[in-house]
Amino acid sequence: MPTLAALDAKQITLREALITLVAALPVGCEADMIEFMRDEPLRPGFAELLEYLAQAQIPFVVLSSGFTFYIDAMLAPWRHLIHAVHALDPIRAGPHMRFELLHNHPREAMPKAWVMREYTASKRIVIGDSTSDFEMAAMADVVFARDRLLDEMRVRNAPVNGYETFFEIRNRLVAGDYVYAANL
Q1: Following DSSP, what letter does each residue of 118-132 receive, concatenated?
Q2: Domain architecture of the chain: domains with CATH
Q3: CA pair distance 176, 104, nearest whole angstrom
Q4: Which pTM value belongs to this model?
Q5: pLDDT digits (tens, 9 = 90+) for 156-182
């Protein structure tokens, strides 16, 4: 079974890792996954960031390599402030879940950069923390990052804004105090 270490070492793609990991999940575990995610709080300031973006008429689009059923449950209290959610829908038939990916992206199960291109915007702002956010961040004008994404952006010597809470992102957007990069 693929490991996070193999993914970090670039021995396997994110697409390969997710297909294999999902195949190990039994159908019927959705309620447990939703309950687990419900107990995982979002970082402080999420609601305040969404409220600011709504007031500024800036659409907030969620692009996730998670499953739609638990992303929807986790975001339900704020769904009215979210323009769109794009996540993965595993097939839940038979003993184990599986993916039937309807795209041919060679590395990703959720091709976030491809989805992001479907939206017109004068400035693309990416907020991310994961391996699955690398390609999307590369085409952004402004990147707010933590964890693996922050490390990768620093390795690439790309402009990046570190963050710990969504309050920090909101405050930086309000003040215009962030690193802007037209060409990454």
Answers
A1: TS--SS-EEEE-SGG
A2: 4-175 (3.40.50.1000)
A3: 37
A4: 0.83
A5: 999 999 999 999 999 999 998 887 754
- Which residues, in sequence order, are CB contacts of 75 under 8 Å at separation 6+? 62, 82, 85
Residue 78, both tokens: 């704020």
CA geometry: angle 57, 153, 118, nearest 5 deg = 40
How many helices (H) does the chain have, and how many strands (E)? 9, 5
Give bridge partners of residue 162 from the DSSP assignment: 145
- pLDDT tens for residues 14-40? 778 777 787 788 888 878 887 877 767
Mean pLDDT score of the chain:
86
- Residue 85 CA to residue 109 CA, distance in Å, equals 15
Which DSSP letter does residue 12 get?
S
Residue 84 belongs to what H/E stretch?
strand 84-88
DSSP E strand stretches across 90-165: 125-128, 142-145, 161-162
What's the rounded Cα separation, in Å, for the pair 126 and 129?
10
CA 92, chain centre distance (Å)? 22
